[in-house]
Structure prediction request, 371 residues.
Amino acid sequence: MSVTQEQLYAGLDLDLSWSERELPERERTKHVHRLHPYLGKYIPQLVEELFRRHVPPGGRVLDPFAGSGTTLVQALESGHDSVGVDIAAFNCLLMRVKTAVYNPFVLEHELRDALARFERGDGRSGRVPAYVRRWYASPAAEHLLRFRSLVGDYEHADVLRVVLARAARSARRTTHFDLDFPREPQLEPYWCHKHKRECRPVETADRFIRRYTLDTLARLKDFSRLRGGHAVDVLHGDARALSLPGKFDAVVTSPPYPGLIDYHEQHRYAYALLRLDDRRASEIGAAAGGVSRASLAAYVDGVASVLASCRDAMRPRGRVVIVVNDRRELYAEILERAGLGLEQRYQRHVNRRTGRRAGEYFEDVLVARRA
Ligand SMILES: C[S@@+](CC[C@H](N)C(=O)[O-])C[C@H]1O[C@@H](n2cnc3c(N)ncnc32)[C@H](O)[C@@H]1O
Prediction:
């Protein structure tokens, strides 16, 4: 690829602007990166390159907005210890499952045993919670609740909880083209924009439980061959209020952006089925909060306070690397208030090809250090 003057002028970094052919979806979602859908993550290849550029070999990494754990998984692959913080309990569960150390024989035995018991009808569905009654056809509700009743019998219960959540996502009565934030259950057949034909809402969950148990097992086994022995610590809490353990050589993160995504709401089914602690009121920049002047001011306060704690937890030469599409130009003020000085800024071109949110945009990488 040749770089034009214009691109150079705009700070566009072509080495980070992969085309679909250079970096196909199966690479972006390799091994544990596809254990469960998560809207709003960055891609592992970007994190890998940011580590190479800005983190010393073996350096300890912090992600205060760790989400689905892309930074932590890549830290393991690239040979770094890491700590991730997130306010959303489901994200923390997912990160722990992705980054844990497994004995592959025990894992395989447990997952296959749970599946076999489920398929021969073991377990009890018990009382049907209101959310489940509304969003699932009765056979699907019975499958999910019965599988849920078996999960606690296993050492790897959390892995089975992630399987349950993924099956619950697929088995909701929604249209195929609105899986992220469906508003109302879809009870009748409908014209499907995705498949260009009439589709029917899902009735059962057993095939998803089977498919995702086996897929999860394969992905965890794949990753355990690459994982190495580095340490990962996942902290559930508000990054504004946590005391961070020890010192770090780098922060690599993609913060939430105001008014875009409700991070708890996208996994609503998981909170309902797994009875997880819902702390959505502490989400910074939640879409539900809108983009009024007051919301933007609260966002700037929130991210600045998180980054100020990160700054205090950094070793002297450490860098804070932030990936964000700063279309509202909030980050000059945020960095200043966090006591960080911008050292470098480059852009990457993102071209998403799939889903309803497909489209192109530019993303900034901000590299800062203690001012
Ligand atoms: C853009 S996402 C990060 C995605 C991540 N880079 C990945 O690849 O999965 C931002 C994350 O910040 C989290 N978050 C929002 N407010 C927070 C807070 N007060 N403390 C900690 N995490 C918060 C959200 O739950 C969300 O998971």
The CA atoms of residues 30 and 219 lie 8 Å apart.
